[in-house]
Amino acid sequence: MKFINLVLFSAVTALASKPPVKQTEDSELYNSLDHAIKEYIKKNNGTKFDDHVPSNISIDKAAAPASKITNEAEARGFIKYAGAAYCGKDSVLKWNCANCNGYAAGASEAVYFSDEDTNTAGYLAVNKGKSLIVLGYRGTKNIENWLHNIDISFTKANLPSPYQDANIHTGFITMCNALYPASLAAFKNAIAKYPNYKVVFTGHSLGGALATLTAFKLAQAGVISWNKVNLLSYGQPRVGNPKFAQFLNSKAMTATRVTAYADLVAISPGRTFGYEHNQHNMHINEDGKTVKCSIYEEDENCISDHIIPSIDAHFNFWDQRMNSKC
Question: Residue 183: is its pLDDT beyond 60?
Fold first, then answer.
């Protein structure tokens, strides 16, 4: 059985009725993923994970050209903003958290939002020195429990032709919807005060999925124009089917998914389940060098679907580690 079936999505049926998984320490996240990988190798006699499904998705070069990708320096810097979403409410509001430094230093006017039922959280912060409005969303802290307790079925995106068949991950959109009223209110207030600031949506892991879907909802509601959306995620899972990916690819936003060699989260939910990533992908190879990926589809040279997954790959980006224990 493929690793994607064995570990990540052993139950394809809806699991949303289960109680929300509580966040735990980073060590538990590490150990749960380590256990899952060892179980896979044991049962498959060292067989390497293969999620390869031929991709037929194409990208509209006029709407989403190669230039619509964050530069590497900025991608390295925003790791701090993505990591800040793991920090507690008080330290985020004061902007003195463990990740509120480096490129993220100097932010203020932070607003923290969370939802107990879905165990999700995020923040909005303003950096006047950099003329930025940042919306950051927290990832999960227990990957094994998260992947076993989120409904991976599809929900209709309700988009017009030719994207009427676009679908979104049910679990992710449910979580996004739980935070959306607070995200919307915070964003409206910030953009009214700073209408010319650059707006960046960011997050790590599950947080990247929530950032993507929040940007989608705000743009579709007309609260922000697509060409002002800047999306930057790290180790983000797939959020929808090929038609939804095509819809996102058709928008003239700046979108970058940073992925690392051997990160299993970035290749889930599997394409075998009908999922597809939107573009663009900034991939970090095994040697730590950044790979230029195809802008037309999920590039097989930038997808770690043929190697044994690495635990550290989900947390390490270039010379930085995503600090989820904040």
Answer: yes
Residues 182-196, mean pLDDT to the nearest whole number: 99
CA distances from 222 to 25, 122, 164, 219, 228 (A): 38, 21, 19, 5, 11
SS (H, E, C) the chain: CCHHHHHHCCCCCCCCCCCCCCCCCHHHHHHHHHHHHHHHHHHCCCCCCCCCCCCCCCCCCCCCCCCCCCCHHHHHHCHHHHHHCCCCHHHHHHCCCCCCCHHHCCCEEEEEEEECCCCEEEEEEEECCCCEEEEEECCCCCHHHHHHHCCCCEEECCCCCCCCCCEEEHHHHHHHHHHHHHHHHHHHHHHHHCCCCEEEEEEECHHHHHHHHHHHHHHHCCCCCHHHEEEEEECCCCCECHHHHHHHHCCCCEEEEEEECCCCHHHCCCHHHCCECCCCEEEECCCCCEEECCCCCCCHHHCCCCCCCCCHHHCEECCEECCCCC
Q: Which one, of 181, 174, 194, lies nearest residue 125 by Cα?
A: 194
Residue 125 pLDDT: 99
The pLDDT value given to residue 301: 75
Neighbours of 285 (CB within 10 A): 13
What average pLDDT score do residues 70-75 get? Answer: 89
The answer to whether residue 124 scores a pLDDT higher than 90 is yes
Within 10 angstroms of residue 51's Cβ, the number of other Cβ atoms is 22
Q: Which domains does the chain have, with CATH numbers?
A: 3-321 (3.40.50.1820)
- pLDDT over 70 (residue 30): no
pLDDT at 95 over 60: yes
* The model scores a pTM over 0.85: no
